[in-house]
Design goal:
Blueprint lengths: L1 E7 L2 E7 L18 E6 L21 E5 L4 E3 L5 E3 L5 E7 L9 E10 L8 E5 L5 E4 L3 E9 L5 E10 L9 E7 L5 E11 L4 H12 L10
Antiparallel strand pairs: 1-2, 3-14, 4-7, 5-6, 6-14, 7-13, 8-12, 8-14, 9-10, 9-13, 11-12
């Protein structure tokens, strides 16, 4: 850990912040494959209201991360730190390919101080016709949890969603989460989306084709 200096109302103050990086995050085996999206945030540039674009290596530039929690500042290590109120994070983006919902989504969060509210995590998918689908994660995991020397915890959290195909012809996505109180330092975030069927689903499709289900176009 580090002690970081950041100005608050023109007065220099000590602000605790975590070293960049996750501890034991969930990294899906399909990251980087065709039909997937990956975005990672390691260094933030806006503490309040502005877009933080993905900056991790090999990130797709398909979304932004915003904090709408008042009183937040950037630390010297480019964390977002909530000084007087909880962080309220919204991640917004679009689809790289045609309208469709992802089949798998994995979110990792690294933060220190006041912990992230596990009940605040939600994924929302939206189409161009006004349709909205809001989903809580199927699985939430505390992947690493250690005491923080300045109070609170240092945690790596992972959240995952598994969706059926064709739930919504999504063109936009949004993920929201928040802190449980002031003094949360958001260190890093990663987001993976998989739009292709899992290998098991492909095997079932191949089996159906093998037993006579018409899986192609009729010959003329």
């Amino acid at each position: 850990m580090k002690i970081c200096f950041a100005p608050i109302f023109a007065i220099a103050a000590f602000i605790p912040c975590a070293e960049a990086g996750f501890v034991n995050p969930v990294i899906p085996s399909w990251r980087g494959a065709a039909g997937t999206e990956y975005m990672g945030w390691e260094n933030f540039t806006s503490a309040y209201g502005g877009a933080n674009l993905p900056d991790a290596p090999n990130s797709d530039n398909l979304g932004g991360l915003y904090n709408f929690g008042a009183g937040a500042v950037l630390t010297s290590t480019q964390n977002i730190y909530g000084t007087t109120a909880p962080l309220f994070i919204s991640m917004l983006g679009g689809m790289a390919t045609a309208s469709k919902n992802p089949l798998e989504v994995v979110l990792n969060i690294s933060a220190a101080g006041s912990v992230i509210d596990l009940n605040s995590i939600a994924l929302t998918l939206m189409d161009n016709g006004g349709g909205v689908l809001r989903l809580n994660p199927r699985l939430a995991e505390i992947r690493s949890d250690q005491p923080f020397s300045f109070g609170g915890r240092v945690q790596t959290l992972s959240f995952s969603w598994n969706l059926q195909p064709n739930l919504i012809a999504a063109t936009q996505w949004q993920i929201n989460f928040s802190g449980t109180g002031p003094n949360t330092s958001l260190d890093a975030v990663s987001l993976d989306m998989n739009f292709i069927p899992a290998p098991g689903a492909l095997s079932v499709l191949a089996m159906l084709c093998g037993v006579g289900v018409n899986c192609g176009r009729r010959r003329l």
